Amino acid sequence: MEDIRNIVILTGAGISAESGLATFRGPDGLWEGHQVEDVCTPEALERNAALVHRFYDERRAKLNEVQPNAAHHALAELDARWPGDLLIVTQNVDDLHERAGARRLIHMHGELRSALCVACGESLPWPDPLPPGSQCPACSRKSLRPDIVFFGEMPYQMDLIDAALRRADLFLSIGTSGAVYPAAGFVQTARHAGARTLELNLEPSAGSFYFEESRIGPASELVPDLVR
Ligand code: BJW
């Protein structure tokens, strides 16, 4: 790591799997027979708000039962001690990176513990449980939804992420299938900018061939081995 100063780390559902949170695409990747693509759209929210709210209510409740694992802790330690630029970009909506102590973190697909007002755009801590007909404290409209980036919506902080990728010396991808864009394209942006690229995953991802190196195994072992 001698010649590396700027690091971007992309994480996905696989990093939280060993904490007990289900991934999306795999044997446990279904929720009550629904594909994630059927629940996580603005159209689904409009068509069947109760179903979408229940999906996120159940996942939010599950957060109280799980803890960060060795991979989250290893990344938080790296964040604390790394003198150069470092950015953890997580696609996950759980809070396990921050509970492990990570500070330089972007939730590009939103957060379970945040609510978004569709009327005024305000984000606020999710009032748990959300009483029916809850009002937005900023505009008083009854228009709160989960602060989650659905398919077809723009992920958060893309400008910041893009800038970090363009000056990265190392791009590390952990526990993501590489099935969802724009995150799946980050490896190409980083490579074009001259970064070294490494993937840590339980199996080769969809974009495995874009990486210079792939290490196959559980994140709780591979991440501490790499960063400590
Ligand atoms: C382990 C492990 C262990 C297990 N250790 N590993 C280009 C081409 C085609 C389509 C598109 C395109 N660009 C955009 C699109 C459309 C769409 C898209 O990508 N569709 C695809 C289905 C093709 N993208 C969008 O709509 C996005 N918005 C957008 O593009 O806006 C326009 C734009 C234009 C230009 C620039 C920027 C933007 C929005 C995507 C929103 C995704 N939302 C979801 C749900 C919300 C969050 C939530 O409910 O949690 O986000 S979908 C779901 O997938 C979730 C995840 O964050 C995301 C990625 O999944 P992830 O994390 O990779 O999980 P899995 O389950 O797929 O994989 C887990 C991996 O871990 C596996 O490989 C396992 O092997 C591994 N693993 N255990 C290590 N112990």
From TrEMBL:
EC number: 2.3.1.286
Subcellular location: Cytoplasm
Residues where substrate binds: Y56, R59
Residue ranges occupied by any Deacetylase sirtuin-type domain in the UniProt entry: 1-228
Cofactor note: Binds 1 zinc ion per subunit.
Entry text on domains: 2 residues (Tyr-56 and Arg-59) present in a large hydrophobic pocket are probably involved in substrate specificity. They are important for desuccinylation activity, but dispensable for deacetylation activity.
Protein name, entry field: NAD-dependent protein deacylase
Species per Swiss-Prot/TrEMBL record: Sphingobium agri
